[in-house]
Amino acid sequence: MLRVAVVGSGPSGCYTAQSLVQRDPGVHVDVLDRLPCPYGLVRYGVAPDHEKIKSLQGALRTVLEHERVRFLGGVPVGPGGVPADRLRRLYHAVVYCVGAATDRRLGIPGEDLPGSWPATGFVSWYSAHPDAADAGYVQGGVRSAVVIGVGNVAVDVVRMLARGAAELTGTDIPEAALGALAASRVREIHMVGRRGPSQARFTTRELRELGGLPDTDVLVDPAEAALDPAYRDPAALPAGPRRNVEAVRGFATAPATGAARRIRLRFFLRPVELLPRGGRVGAVRFERTAPDGHGGVTGTGRYEDIEARLVLRSVGYRGVPVAGLPFDATSGTVPHLAGRVLGEGGGVVPGVYVAGWIKRGPTGVIGTNRPCAKETVTSLLADAPVLIRAEPPGDPLPALRAEGVRPVPWAGWRAIERAEAELGGRLGRGVVKLPDWESLLRAAGAASG
Ligand code: NAP
DSSP assignment of 360-427, as one string? Predict the structure, then answer.
């Protein structure tokens, strides 16, 4: 029997476990997660109103319920949890699928003013991540918001800011976030890219969805968009950017309807400073940019201030170092060769692997993790004849408990699901997520005994 620990139960962890048990009948996998809940960014990143993408949890559930896969929640690996070298000794191999846990920084003055937050924190809050708190995102008199960046996370947060209570009540959004967003007075949302429409990172389906939001206009200044040479003649572009440009042109030519909310899609503006007003951010100063002819932009020395009491910086996720593993600080990834972790000297670290965003960086859609996991599993199974020679001590569970962790088994997670259904029932809604550690662990403990 080959015992493998997969650290992280998001899509990359689940696809790794799936590939391992499908391809080798002798493999047993423990999927560890520091949270008592599985599914990583599918649970804590996909927006609540994207029910179709969330339904992927059904496929991931099948993996975690496989007879040779065991989910162990509430098991942190690294400082404060199970030391990485200890974990390595309990299994024949360890695969880290820990994603990219933090946000990229802008590195400009005023970035940390109250009212300026990473979009990743806002996403965690409306997704009920137990480490997320309400930073007062849409509190009081916030009427205008700026979202910096034009990727899919930016589109998600813009959409969530523009949605009304009626559209969110039927989702699993936690009650406090629903209440705050329902009371929100944000009417003007600027989504701002530093380059042109043909270089935006969002996907067309996500962009078009903004146009379908009730009582919301999506506004584009055609002259600003046309600074992008490809805007006037998108035919030569690859399919993705071409469809994006066509969608942007559609918004630019549609007349405003006088809707209650406005999403202003802006281009060729790079943030240079956040300006304070009354102890909170008051505006973002942007420098107007121009295409440099090589896909980048240059500054023009002309500036524009956009008023905003809420700024969400949506400029990408970033991997954080994994204790005990080498780390490339430039890319925010663990150096590897086809998933085999490479040590300081460039040699392979035996029995240690990576898959997902910590391997290739925070790009691609959920499905991109499938071939990525397969590549890692191919490497691991090729190494198996050597790995299996070092026999680890029996079932790792007692040793994990001896490290002071209290693993939440699958039955504990199922109990959390039941508690979330019951909570929703009491509130007259569908399933409603539990948003804090205490209620999650209480619900899980009721089943785990
Ligand atoms: P992303 O796709 O990398 O987009 C980041 C955006 O930030 C880009 O517009 C980038 O512009 C901009 N940016 C970076 N540094 C900047 C700076 N210093 N100043 C101004 N703008 C800056 O990242 P993401 O939106 O976080 O998404 C991460 C991944 O998750 C993506 O693969 C995404 O598709 C995926 N995702 C998918 C969905 C979905 O399918 N529904 C939902 C959410 C996330 P430049 O291009 O100029 O660098």
Answer: H-S-S-GGGHHHHHHHHHHHHHHHHHHHTTS---S-HHHHHHHTT---B-HHHHHHHHHHHHHHHHHH
Q: What is each CA distance from 301 to 223, 298, 414, in whole angstroms? A: 19, 9, 57
Look-up: residue for tokens 């997969």? 6
Atom 36 of ligand 1, residue of closest alpha carbon: 152
Q: How confident is the model at residue 24 (pLDDT cuts 50, 70, 90)?
A: very high
290 & 343 share domain: no
What count of other Cβ atoms lies within 10 Å of the Cβ of residue 280? 19
Give the pTM: 0.96
126 touches 341 (CB < 8 A): no
Edge-to-edge strand list for the sheet holding 261-266: 116-118, 310-313, 144-148, 188-192, 261-266, 216-220
Of the candidates 71, 155, 43, 74, the one whose C-alpha atom is nearest the C-alpha of residue 431 is: 43
Task: Quote the percentage of the chain above a pLDDT of 70.
Answer: 99
What are the distances in angstroms from CA 50 to CA 45, 55, 57, 172, 434? 10, 9, 12, 11, 18
My answer on whether 231 and 380 are in the same domain is no
Q: How far is the CA of 314 from the centre of ligand 1 (A)?
A: 7
Do residues 192 and 125 share a domain?
yes
**159 and 125 housed in the same domain:** yes
Q: Which residues pair with 94 in a beta bridge?
A: 5, 352
Task: State how far the Cα of 128 lies from the Cα of 387, in Å rounded to an integer.
Answer: 39
Residue nearest to atom 3 of ligand 1 (CA): 316
Give the residue from 357, 353, 273, 285 showing the smallest Cα distance to 318. Answer: 357
Q: Which CATH number belongs to the domain containing residue 289 in this structure?
A: 3.50.50.60
Q: How confident is the model at residue 80 (pLDDT cuts 50, 70, 90)?
A: confident
3-state secondary structure of 268: coil
Which ligand 1 atom sits nearest the alpha carbon of residue 206? Answer: 41
